[in-house]
Amino acid sequence: MLGRKTVLAATGAAMLVSAGAAQAAETLKLAVGFPTGSAAVYALEKFARNVEATSDLKVKVFSMSLLNLKETPPGIRDGIADMGYVLPPYYPAEFAELNLAANLSMLSTTGKQIESPGTAMGAAMTEYAFLHCPECLVEQKRQNQVYLGTGASPTYILHCTTPIRSMADLERKKYRSGAANFGRWAEAVGGTKVSVPGNDIYEAMAQGVVDCAMVSATELSNLQLFDVTKYITTRIPGGVFAGVATNSINRDVWGELTDDQRKAIFKASAQSSADLTWKYYADAMRNLNDAPGKGIEVIEPTAEMLKMSEEFVKSDLAVISEQFANDYGLENVDAKIAKISELVEKYKGLTAGMADDPDALADLYWNEIMSKVDLSTYGRN
Predict the structure, then answer these.
(1) Contact between residue 340 and residue 97 where contact means Cβ atoms under 8 Å apart
(2) Higher pLDDT, residue 258 or 2
(3) CA pair distance 45, 246, nearest whole angstrom
(4) Crossing angle between the packed helical segments 259-290 and 117-127, to the nearest 10 degrees
(5) What integer is the mean pLDDT of 200-227?
(6) How far is CA 243 from CA 152, 181, 239, in A?
(7) What are the pLDDT digits (tens) for 253-303?
(8) Pair 288, 232: CB distance under 8 Å
(9) Residue 26, burial from CB neighbour count under 10 angstroms (0-12, 13-18, 19+)
(10) Do residues 236 and 244 make contact, with C-beta atoms less than 8 angstroms apart?
(11) Bridging pattern class, strands 231-233 and 174-177
(12) pLDDT confidence of residue 22
């Protein structure tokens, strides 16, 4: 039998563990590898306020101070942060299932055109992950994380230090690529892809490591690219950046929360993905309007350049299929591509008119997707 001192010690230890878990549940640390004033920080600070308004939780947002963009996924996995803004393309093998969907983002700017392609792509990614891709959730579990939704950027365009006015100008340039599909586009136009983390784009452009960065116009202010960009060519390469898990949470922390706390986080997550998409779009529109006044020439692409991009997207589907089957071992890839393509078209219709209405977009996320997730088991089995 245990002695009285042993029992008391064990009880005290249990009380300390319980107190620690309760404390962890009361204040969540959320890491964002973007600076204050960025779209990501805007969305997640609002997320924190929404969670605090609807539960007994508190959320502290750490902007650029706890984990950078590349450190965030392992930081959440290991408990350095409770939550964080995750970019799966930085870890192509670990998040291969979700990255398959993200690699299809150029579908959002081909065929039927909408004002804010990010609204369609973010919603399509979110429905796919929650409702059609159990493999996506398994890989999240392997990383000790729980996925809570995706927001997406506006159209990717060229931010350059030299002018891009024609097909010939596209050749022999070094392009910063943040995802594999954009890198293949760079190679297709006769350029060279260069992998540079988002936090390092400014220096890469300033030092001539890259001639152009393929990012949305939001990054002119998000990453201070106003200072190093001299020319913008709009609408190409096209597509959006949808390789985002807006505010993933550590799986152990998620399991410690009460049912009401999980619901509050889940509902606020629908809003945060919508807010992220809207803020990216709104800032991009403002930045493009401000660009000429800051000495940046804004160039419209030629019909030939647009046709080339459209044809590239169609031909690249086979490349994506082969890559994810052979390099990452994904199964039923063609069926998954067909499903994602279907969802992109679905949300091009459902998000029409929501480019500047984040609350309507959040309601769509909730009613069409996230309300259908069973929170009694989600992220816990």
Answers:
(1) no
(2) 258
(3) 12
(4) 160
(5) 95
(6) 8, 11, 12
(7) 999 999 999 999 999 999 999 999 999 999 999 999 999 999 999 999 999
(8) yes
(9) exposed
(10) no
(11) unpaired
(12) 39
CA–CA distance, 288 with 267 (Å, rounded to integer): 32
Axis crossing angle, helix 333-350 with helix 117-127, rounded to the nearest 10? 130
The domain defined by 157-239+297-309 folds into: D-Maltodextrin-Binding Protein; domain 2 (3.40.190)
pLDDT recorded at residue 192: 97
Does 11 score more than 70 pLDDT? no
Q: Is the fold of 28-152+242-291+318-372 the same as that of 157-239+297-309?
A: yes
- How far apart, in whole angstroms, are the C-alpha atoms of residue 81 and residue 311? 42
Contact assessment for residue 154 and residue 217, using Cβ atoms and an 8 Å cutoff: yes
How many CB atoms are located within 10 Å of the residue 156 CB?
Answer: 28
Q: How far apart are CA 367 and CA 244, in angstroms?
A: 21
Nearest Cα neighbor of 188 from 294, 319, 24, 43 is 319
Mean pLDDT of 48-74: 96
Q: Is 354 helix (H, G, I), strand (E, B) or coil?
A: coil
Bigger pLDDT: 90 vs 107:
107
Name the residue ranges covered by the structural domains of the chain: 28-152+242-291+318-372, 157-239+297-309
* Closest by CA position to 161, among listed 179, 181, 175, 177: 175
> Can the peptide bond before residue 237 be classed as cis, meaning omega within 30 degrees of 0?
yes
Using pLDDT thresholds of 50, 70 and 90, give the confidence band for residue 9: very low
Evaluate whether the domain defined by 28-152+242-291+318-372 bears CATH number 3.40.718.10. Answer: no
Separation between Cα atoms, residue 274 and residue 290, nearest integer Å = 24
* 255 secondary structure, DSSP code: H
